[in-house]
Design brief:
Layout lengths: L6 E5 L4 H12 L3 E6 L2 H13 L4 E5 L5 H15 L4 E4 L15 H29 L2 E6 L12 H21 L4 E8 L5 H9 L3 H10 L9 H12 L10 E4 L13
Parallel strand pairs: 1-2, 1-4, 2-3, 4-5, 5-6, 6-7
The structure holds NADP nicotinamide-adenine-dinucleotide phosphate (NAP).
Length: about 260
């Protein structure tokens, strides 16, 4: 077991990539704190972990609120005596929005959850890691933090911010033995993407279009992304910090020239 004895906070751990990662971390021996807003989904996930013999706690948390993030970090240490891992998975997207269609409210929501939420959770988690002498953080960016995408202006801005926030924190905290990396997924089969597919006329029509954006010609499962997060938080990645790991089936590898 690669995370035996470790304690992990996972924001957005009650759905999609965060949920798959919470289950995998638990299988690898970690005690898991799930921080998100929807209590029913949170309790369902912690129940699934406990049924498999793991330890888990759900805490209601809106990552846009400093007071919530501070409480999650504090309660984690009170409950489990330490904090080793922070995986920031919470995120939102408003599909099909160019700048002209993006309301100020949507812009603020996107930046507040996707970028400010990462800053706030790190701000309150890192002091506990410093006290303990080590820590690992994985943030969730996107392929749209590495390259632009159409119809997702605010989302791209928020994920670009996550990529560089990750690098800045990696530099700032390396001397404290804290590694900070991010993952950049392509399309992943989660409720977020299923909602996007519905908005584009339904899964049957949209799924092949989403798949075709990836040279591997499919979208990924949340479990595949969770395995990449596990790698980054494990000692197998002990010399990796400041990295943006594309988990994207080749989507950002370069241009595919038709006919060659
Ligand atoms: N799916 C993809 O194709 C894809 C691709 C690239 C990147 N990503 C990124 O991967 C991450 C996870 O997305 P997903 O696909 O797993 O989507 P998802 O299933 O919709 O999960 C999103 C999670 O974010 C949480 N969340 C949203 N707003 C929050 C808030 N204000 N405070 C706390 N938690 C909040 C949600 O929980 P509550 O609603 O209960 O709060 C939920 O757990 C996101 O950062 C997303 O941008 C996804």
């Amino acid at each position: 077991m690669r995370l035996q004895g470790k304690v992990a906070i996972i924001t957005g751990g009650n759905s999609g990539i965060g949920r798959a990662t919470a289950l995998l971390f638990s299988q690898e021996g970690a005690k898991v704190v799930i921080a998100a807003r929807n209590e029913a989904r949170g309790q369902e996930t912690t129940a699934a972990i406990k049924r498999s013999g793991g330890e888990a706690l759900f805490l209601v948390c809106d990552v846009r609120r400093a007071i919530d993030c501070e409480r999650v970090a504090q309660r984690t240490v009170e409950e489990f005596s330490r904090l080793d891992i922070l995986f920031n998975s919470a995120g939102v997207v408003y599909p099909d929005r160019i700048v002209l269609d993006t309301s100020e409210e949507e812009w603020n929501q996107t930046m507040d959850v996707n970028a400010k939420g990462v800053y706030l959770m790190c701000k309150y988690a890192i002091p506990h890691m410093i006290e303990h002498g080590s820590g690992v953080i994985v943030n969730t960016a996107s392929v749209w933090g590495l390259v632009g995408g159409n119809g997702a202006a605010a989302y791209c801005a928020s994920k670009g911010a996550v990529v560089l926030l990750t690098k800045a924190m990696a530099l700032d905290h390396a001397h404290q033995n804290i590694r900070v990396n991010c993952i950049c997924p392509g399309s992943v089969d989660t409720p977020m993407v299923r909602r996007e597919m519905e908005a584009l006329g339904g899964a049957e029509k949209a799924r092949p279009i989403f798949a075709a954006k990836h040279p591997l010609n499919r979208i990924s499962t949340p479990e595949e992304v969770a395995k990449s997060v596990l790698f980054l938080v494990s000692d197998d990645a002990s010399f990796i910090t400041g990295a943006s790991l594309a988990v994207d089936g080749g989507r950002t590898a370069g241009e595919v020239v038709v006919g060659q």
